[in-house]
C-alpha cells in the first residue's frame, strides 16, 4: 500500500507544490496551520480538485490531470475522519456507523460492525443521537463510521485538534490500536509534535505549501530547524525502545534503546513491548565527563555529530549514542565554555521525570507481567 | 352548531373541491419547487436573477394579471394549452385542474422561498462527509440533504396549501366560477355575497375556511416539532 502525490495548486496567493511518496502504516502530514496539509488531505479524499498533478493510492490513479483522470470522492473508497466529526444529526449513532457500509459492494466489505464497535469502545453509544455525545465520543464514532465503509486508506484531518487534553488522551490509544491492529494504512494530518512523534511511522513535513522533509519519523523529527516556531520547544529525538523491566520499588520502567538503558516513569506495558519515547531537546543536558552527584538517572554516552545554530542564544547539538541520535538544545555560552566540537565525546543527561505521558508513546494499558 | 354543518350539496362541493385543488396544487408544486429552490440556493448560472424574478412574479403581480396570463398561455387557444390538450389530453381552461394550476402558481414563490432558505442552512460539510463514505450525489441528496431540509419542506408545503385554499383572483380570472367544477371556497363565498340573503351561507363557508386553515397550521406545527425532535434540534 502506498500513497504517491505530486501536485501543483493555487488558491488566491497561496501556492502549493508538493511531492511525496509514502508506504508507511501511519503517515503524518505535519506542519503549522497554513502549510497546506489539510488542502493535501482534501485532495486525496477528492474534496478538492488540484490544478495539476497526480495522486495515486496503491497503484490506482485517483487524479491525473494530464490524462484527464479525476475519480469522484464516492468512488475512491477512502475513509475520512474530519476535525469536526461531521456525524449526521438526523441519524442515530448506529445508523451513522452503518451509512458507508450501505454503499460498499458486498465483496469489498471487510470491516465487521461488532469488531469495530469493540475496537473503539462505542457499544454503549449505539442508540444515542450524535448531538448528545461528548467531543471524544463523537470522534470515536466518526472513526468507526469511516472504518465501516471498508476503505483502502484512512485519512484523518486533525482528529484531536478540537479536543481538550483529557479527551485527546482518551482517543490516542484507539488510534494506536487502529494503526497496530488493522491493515488499513492511515494518513494523519497534525500540527502537534507530540501526536506525530507518538503515532507516525512516517512523516511528511510541510511549510508554506512545500514538502521540506519526508521519511521515517525518527529521522524527520530530528530536524528541529524545520519545526513550526510554536512547536519548536516540543522538538527532540524520537527513539524506538522496548520494555526491559519494571522497577516496582520506585515506580519506574527501564527501556532498552540503542543508546543504552533509559529510565522513565512506569508505563503499563509488558516486558518486551515496543515503546517509543520522545526526548525533548530542551530537556537534554550535555556533560563532558560522566557526571557524579547528579540526580538525573539517564546518562547516555555519545559523540557529537552536528552543531547547528538555534533560536536566539541556543545551539542544537546532535549526539550519536551508539547509532541513536539524541538532540540537545543548549546555549552558545555553554557550548563555548565546554569547548564542544564535532567528534567530541560527551554524555547526554536526561531526567526521568521529564518523560511524561505525551513523551512515552505507551499505547494501551495492558496487564503488566512484572 | 348544527347549522354550521348543515351545508347544501353545492356548498359541500365547494369545500371538497377547495381541499382537492389545494392538495393537488401543493403536491404538484413540490418537485419543481425543490428543484428551483436547489438551483437558486446552489446553482451558479447565467440568468439566475431572472429566474428568481420570474418565480417571485406571482407574489407582486395583481392576481388578476397572473390569471389572465395563465388564460393566454394555458387557455384553449394558448400555445401551452393547445399543445397539452392535443398531445396529452390535459385541459386546464374552465376545469378544476386549471384552478389547481392557478393556485399552484400563486403559492409557488412562497414554497420556493421556504425550501430555499432551508437548503441554504444545510451544512455542506455533512454532504461532503457522506460523499467520502461512498454515497453518490443523488444518494447524498436523498439521505442527507432531504432529511435536513424536511422542516423547511413542510413549512413550504403548508404555506402553498394555505395560499391555495385562499386563492381567488387568479382562479376566477383563469377558470371562472362554475359550481362543481371551479367554484372553490373563496369563489362560493364571493357568489353568496353577490346575491340577496346569501349572508348565512357566506358566514358558514367563512367559518369552514377558518377551520381548515387553522387545521393546516396546527398540522404543520406538529409535524415540524416531530421532525425537530427526531433531529435533536429543538
TrEMBL record, chain A:
GO terms for cellular component: membrane. Transmembrane segments: none annotated. Residues 293-359 form the Mop domain. GO terms for molecular function: ABC-type transporter activity; ATP binding; ATP hydrolysis activity; molybdate ion transmembrane transporter activity. Pfam families: ABC_tran (PF00005), TOBE (PF03459). The keyword Aminoacyl-tRNA synthetase does not apply. InterPro entries: AAA+_ATPase, ABC_transporter-like_ATP-bd, ABC_transporter-like_CS, Mo/tungstate-bd_C_term_dom, ModC_ABC_ATP-bd, Molybdenum_import_ModC, Mop_domain, P-loop_NTPase. It comes from the Bacteria. The keyword Magnesium does not apply. Residues 2-233 form the ABC transporter domain. This is Molybdenum ABC transporter ATP-binding protein. The lineage of its organism: Bacteria, Pseudomonadati, Pseudomonadota, Alphaproteobacteria, Hyphomicrobiales.
